[in-house]
Amino acid sequence: MTVSPSPEHSPLGQRSAYIDQYDPTLLFPLPRQAKRDELGLQPDKLPFFGADLWTAYEVSWLNLRGKPQVALVSFTIPCETPNIVESKSFKLYLNSFNNSRFGSVDEVRAKLLADISEAVWRGAPYQASVGVQMIDPEVFDTLPLQELDGLNLDRLDIDCEHYQPQPQLLRAAFDEAPITETLSSRLLKSNCLVTGQPDWGSVRISYTGPAIDQERLLQYIVSFRNHNEFHEQCVERMFVDIWKHCKPIRLTVYARYTRRGGLDINPLRTSQPMALPANIRTARQ
């Protein structure tokens, strides 16, 4: 019987050797379904579409003459993949490029594309790809900063007393006409599932449906403060809770987490197919 890898067996929280020669075996995929089971989600009946947008800020390799090269890399990982990649293993994998020689940036991109695709689709009945965009240093100074749009929930003067997710806080005006609005907050914080280290983020919630009680929604966002889950899992939990308790017609939940170890992770889950937003970092990222 094949045993699925679990977070406690990952490199997280463990002393790790930093390998500087290309090694794709450093990638540690983790199945998404274990956490989705907690939310009652079936793999073939997900209530959302979306992707995880990763940005790698510390990517370097050697050209054939031994001269260091650098780039930023943006990854798009569909939420339908059976696995995520544990973030420390992702960093260790990227470090393995540091003293490896490649003939071109296209060769580096091809390695990244093949390796990440294999890891996140491992065990699936079919194999698909991920998105990989190499960002050249010549355009670094053109990259914008952009805060998440929407009405700022943080303006509300509220009492907060829950620091574990409390979906029962959510309320909506079911006896009133549906509305369409976008709400955002910079007060999202959760903790790493394994190490307990803090993960800071901003979240945007766009919906059409019964008006959601904004004060209670902000209290709900704050209630993740001491919760231990990976970024992707937190966003899926938010989506499911809001979908269940507020019953919107349409819903999109998008979070941008600050980087740790040279990586940021920005999950988006939406009830309807849509174009993904540009992977533009916020000021805190």
UniProtKB/TrEMBL annotation:
It is found in: Cytoplasm. Pathway: tRNA modification; tRNA-queuosine biosynthesis. GO terms for biological process: tRNA queuosine(34) biosynthetic process. The keyword NADP applies. Residues 18-120 form the NADPH-dependent 7-cyano-7-deazaguanine reductase N-terminal domain. Its main location: cytoplasm. Its EC number is 1.7.1.13. It holds the Pfam family QueF. HAMAP family: QueF_type2. Homodimer. Belongs to the GTP cyclohydrolase I family. QueF type 2 subfamily. This is NADPH-dependent 7-cyano-7-deazaguanine reductase. It comes from Comamonas piscis. The lineage of its organism: Bacteria, Pseudomonadati, Pseudomonadota, Betaproteobacteria, Burkholderiales.
